[in-house]
Amino acid sequence: MSSPDYEILDLKDAPQFFDAVADRIWRAWWLPEGRVLSDVQSALADVVSSPGYPFSLVATRGSVFLGTVTSIQADIPARPHLGPCLAALWVEPASRGQGIGEALVEAVVQRLQAGDVERVYLSAKPLMREYYVHRGWSMIESDIDKDHQDVFVRVLPAV
User: Fold this and answer.
1) With CB atoms 3.0 to 4.6 Å apart as the test, which of 48, 67, 86, 135 could cross-link to 59 if both were Cys?
2) What pLDDT does residue 1 have?
3) 4 vs 7: CA distance, rounded Å
4) 8-state DSSP, 93
5) Tens digit of pLDDT for each residue in 78-96?
6) pLDDT tens, position by position, 17-66
């Protein structure tokens, strides 16, 4: 998937962005929980080495990293039965507001839909509620876990 300005690639096909993806995931979600970068690198290496699913995508403008998103089976510890999940959506601060996050999400949705997935889930902090609701996600639960996350689902039409 691409736009005239950037492209979205599978991280398996763009390993030069592995370190940037691992760093952003670590800083945004794992570091605040006291985890070390090597934990993320190990988990991400498992994703990249898996054929097909799970997968991580990157948005790039040439050699410039713009953002990332991952799809894994379970990403909501309080609701491990919900999956597959969209996880770790990150867009570089200087690239926000350009539709890159939405394009990354849609790339995950299209790939899952092509694999006959009927629903995809995600969890997000309440400050992201409006972002996801306005993009076709339905909130199914709120105030879960210690971060008081919302849980969303998106039902995917059959292809």
Assistant:
1) 67
2) 56
3) 8
4) G
5) 999 999 999 999 999 999 9
6) 999 999 999 999 999 999 999 999 999 999 999 998 999 999 999 999 99
Residue 46 lies in a domain: yes
Confidence category of residue 147, pLDDT binned at 50, 70, 90: confident
Residue 73: CATH number of its domain: 3.40.630.30
> Degrees (nearest 5) of the Cα angle 14, 123, 29?
60
For residue 1, being part of any structural domain is answered with: no
Q: How many domains does the chain have?
A: 1
Q: For 44, what's the count of Cα atoms within 13 Å in the CB-facing half-sphere?
A: 28
Residue 123 domain-assigned? Answer: yes
Q: How far apart are CA 82 and CA 152, in angstroms?
A: 10
DSSP 36: -
> Within a 10 A sphere around the Cβ of 24, how many other Cβ atoms?
18
